[in-house]
Amino acid sequence: MDLVKKILDHYEKIWVLAKANAVLEWDSETYMPKGETKERGFITSKIESMIQDLMTDKEFIKWVEQLEEKAENDFEKGIARVLKRSIYYYTKIPKKELEEYNKLIVEAVRVWEDAKKKSDFNRFAPYLEKIVEFKRKFAEYLGYKYSPYDALLDRYEEGYTVKDIDPLFNRLKRDLKKEYERIKEIWHDYHWLENEPYNRERMELLNKTVLSMIGFDFNHMRLDVSAHPFTIELGLYDIRITTWYHKKDFRRSLLAVIHEFGHALYERQIDEKLWKTPLQGGVSLGIHESQSRFWEIVVAKTKEFTQFLEPLVKNILKIDADSEDLFKYFTIVRPIPIRVESDDVTYNFHIILRYEIERDLIEGKIDVRDIPEIWNEKMEQYLGIKPKNDSEGALQDIHWSLGAIGYFPTYTLGNLIAAQIKYNFPDLETHIENKNFATIREYLREKIHKYGSMYEPKVLLEKSFGEPVNEKYFIKLLRERYR
Amino acid sequence: MDLVKKILDHYEKIWVLAKANAVLEWDSETYMPKGETKERGFITSKIESMIQDLMTDKEFIKWVEQLEEKAENDFEKGIARVLKRSIYYYTKIPKKELEEYNKLIVEAVRVWEDAKKKSDFNRFAPYLEKIVEFKRKFAEYLGYKYSPYDALLDRYEEGYTVKDIDPLFNRLKRDLKKEYERIKEIWHDYHWLENEPYNRERMELLNKTVLSMIGFDFNHMRLDVSAHPFTIELGLYDIRITTWYHKKDFRRSLLAVIHEFGHALYERQIDEKLWKTPLQGGVSLGIHESQSRFWEIVVAKTKEFTQFLEPLVKNILKIDADSEDLFKYFTIVRPIPIRVESDDVTYNFHIILRYEIERDLIEGKIDVRDIPEIWNEKMEQYLGIKPKNDSEGALQDIHWSLGAIGYFPTYTLGNLIAAQIKYNFPDLETHIENKNFATIREYLREKIHKYGSMYEPKVLLEKSFGEPVNEKYFIKLLRERYR
């Protein structure tokens, strides 16, 4: 089909610029000299605007619209769908407002950093108010089915609305509460390994050894260090992850590596036929997170995996912990105010809380100024704890200052889907026990990775697992693991 | 002037893409996973072609032509001059031929690598023949004054022709021969430090310490490791250098660092007013090389500098060498067949030899097949040595396989200009003795760096030193140093 070729030829430029920007971003998070920030920001934003110009080229838009009508197979339909989404965003929101918004964001992040340092929500509030105002306007431009929040959520998790999330999260909240009450009665909330110092070079070697053994392809992948762990795809043949080092509590570094490995594997196992097309790339944040969490909380926290780790920890890290220690250390349950350091049981309460607040903000049911109070009330209600101050309360996450409203729910979707995959995968524990990680990688490739963005998340889940996202598997995992 | 603004606005995109490509290149030489080569090559060549499209935009060309006529000051004249040169190259050579040529180059480098490994010039010869053929055609497209070689040389050293280089190199050859004959009678050709092993980490620390002390701005610069040392400018506020490590013979690593520092300082000290304009960047290879060689052979090989180094080498590298040892070690004179490992006295014979061969090739006076014989004869004549085989003879350098014909003379121009600067700079040795490197940096900034590409090399030399490039200063340096 000549039309597809024309579209892909034009898209190739967009792809090339996006990859260039990814390398610039990776560099700025890892090796860029500290004094370079401003110039680099200028360069990446210019490239971003070139991408936008190419995406909104009138001829190109016409072709995509034609393809939408004429698409003959899943590949073509996928291309039309994914491109339409990008075009839609750039064309529905007036360029001028998007520029104003982007300027606001740059300042908002700065102010949030300052406000967090001083634990002063009121300092950040006027900026968040402006962000919410922009987001509500954007939602109107973009259109939505039930709630303006849907328009925002859809950017991160295509096809999902409050009508999906509300009932799902409500059931989860109910069942998770029960599980949590049960678990906290019988489970440990501390382990001596949390305070065990480690040697940085040995830790690096342990990380690399574990990565090698689970299938990290160092010929096409790298591990570096950054302020916060992340994965970035610089091409189908160049995927990079980072981790961090804290001198003690080695699970933070190791589990981050395993988590990012899951993201990286997804990008690496996308079908080569999708290379340079709009379908080369994970389909959504939720599906992506399901891949990282699958390795981090489903695979790595089994007793089989801690048995696999025991000799590595003993011999490489020179820390004398057996597999039972490791299992206990990895599964501590302790409610704390900070989301990113939370355990797997309480984590989703942090997300539900954020979801409820941001949804109500966008729907105009609450005001920005009310957030700290609501935050603390919900924290008390869900986890029985109270943040000492805003800095470990409503100011802890960078997301809202970046304008990422509608992003949080994807973390919980990822957790739920990760557990869902586990119960669809026969004999997972046996494969881990046999260090047969290749079979696990193949399973993920066949069920999810190879499709890239060809199917929207709901369709992909239906196709691969025969049902929509379902919280019962995650609850089942907690029931089986914490007993 | 509205015209300048229009030109600079358009040029900004070219600049942005060039910087992105520079980051991609730096990455591919330092940290890129080994398996990534093909995809990365695709990305950089696509960006290169976007740059070419922007540079040959018809409206843009019209503006540049208008500016050429109307330019009112050195800034505007410089912009018109520099842009005209790029436009000229892209528009005079048919795009199709340039593409064919680029494809040939990719293959030629591969074949050259193989031929060098097998020390078989005949394997490479057919490719070099095709390259020479292309270059002769390009010279006709580009036009020239005296020799088709001028058109090629001008790409690397704007404004220079065989009528400049022939008499200069002939005088140099004559005087250098005399100096060399004199020096080899009285000078040492070996030093024990050549075989002294070093500790890699200590060497890295020594490199960084020396860099810090001579004024490397780690806030805007980095030092990394690569197969061959290089400098790359990723922006006015982000300049990076690399070095290498060989386990012994530490001057190779240290002097490479000092050499690259010279290149980096040039790019870093360009006037901020030239940021993002076509004038932000060193003006030519010869002037650039004069900056690196100034630090490497003029500054670092003085007795004052080796006195400055002595405690650092003793304390950091833990090698017990005094300043006299270091001076002798840095100034060994020993004729060898390999250019890049040659001493400062014999080095320029290697360049003159290459220049004479490539000039005659382009002028059709000799054939590619004759190169090895001519090479070996000249080697015998200039230095009294014979390469064992083509691999350490005519195949040793990558340049010709890359199509870089007209490039070699700039190395010698750099050496000569470096010495010329020295004798224009009062009390250089005293400043070195006082570790007063800031004054040296300021001198270079005022005389050369700040102008970027505003003046073509000949004009710049006239303006800053009142005369054209002159070989007598280099000869004087040899006379004073080697006695």
Automatic annotation (TrEMBL), chains A, B:
Signal peptide: none annotated. SUPFAM superfamilies: Metalloproteases ('zincins'), catalytic domain. The keyword Cell cycle does not apply. The active site is at E260 (proton donor/acceptor). Its cofactor is Zn(2+). InterPro entries: Peptidase_M32_Taq (IPR001333). The keyword Metal-binding applies. It catalyses: Release of a C-terminal amino acid with broad specificity, except for -Pro. This is Metal-dependent carboxypeptidase. Broad specificity carboxypetidase that releases amino acids sequentially from the C-terminus, including neutral, aromatic, polar and basic residues. It is an enzyme of class 3 (hydrolase). It comes from Nanoarchaeum equitans (strain Kin4-M). It comes from the Archaea. One of its GO terms (molecular function) is metal ion binding. Keywords: Carboxypeptidase, Hydrolase, Metal-binding, Metalloprotease, Protease, Zinc. GO terms for biological process: proteolysis. Its EC number is 3.4.17.19. Belongs to the peptidase M32 family.
